[in-house]
Amino acid sequence: MKAARAGAVRAGKPALGLLALALSGCPNLPNYPPTVTPIYAATSSGLSIYNGAAWTTYSTSSGLPSATVNGLAVAGNGSSAPIFAATGSGISLSLSGGSSWTTALSGVRIASVFIGNEFYAATPTGVDASVNGESWFAMSGSPANANCLFAVGSTVYAATSAGLSIYNGVAWTTTTSGLASDTVNGVFVDADSYVYAATESGLSVFNGSSWATYLGGSVVNGVFVVGAGSGAAIYAATAGGVEISLNGGTSWTNHTGSGLGSSTVYGVAVDLASNLYAATASGLSISTNGGASWSNDLPGVQVNGVVVTAPLYSY
Fold this sequence. Notes:
CATH class: Mainly Beta
Oligomer: single chain
Structural class: mainly beta
Strand order of the largest sheet: 1-13-12-11-10
Number of strands: 30
CATH superfamily: YVTN repeat-like/Quinoprotein amine dehydrogenase
Number of helices: 0
CATH topology: Methylamine Dehydrogenase, Chain H
Shape: globular
Radius of gyration: 17 Å
Distance between the termini: 40 Å
Largest sheet: 5 strands, mixed
């Protein structure tokens, strides 16, 4: 049994001393690269890494406790950056580019991992945190079965099936008021503190005073934002393709077909050159023209999330 401990979040960077990079589906604070290698894909068959020439997939034979990788986060950039994999049977850490792994919380399904002031993992019984990325403790009062995590400073956000839970540095509270649905699949917070909640019935956005819902009735699995505030570019991963708004939600363009691996999209990320990466039910789809057309890598493989890294650029 995990020892419960008060969920205090410390100021400063995690013990590894490295910045988190862009993660789709359940994203880390994005840093946009001019060139995109390596690319990391969390899949139903393991962790796949693209080195600029070819994909390599790491699975149980490499030391992962489960072939199912629900999400990932990368602490830093380059081929030797620490990789955290949220698997079907624990939180795994690789310091060798994926060729070997150590696992904590063995036997526990991890739905999401996030790197903020500390390291955070979503488990069936609550949110766990770690100072060093290796030993973990349960955050007291945290929600069970969170789908996605996000953190800004000492504030932690958890997307759950019973609303959006928020830890303010002292205690957790859960809200459903203003949300399109109580079932929240993903969450993102931009630099202007706008909160984006990807729900089972639309994308709900909190501007600091009130909620507004976009894409009403659509199953939104994840959200990624470039810029901030009322003029932000919003990229929504939905059950009906990639939805894009370049004006803070005022108008939207749907992108399906034209090479997209599947219309079921679990996450989306964008790099500095405005290349799009869609984690789909049948491959990782990449667009260099704003979603007008796509090429599809890892065809036939369910991709749950994608991280793009390179020299750091913060939005």
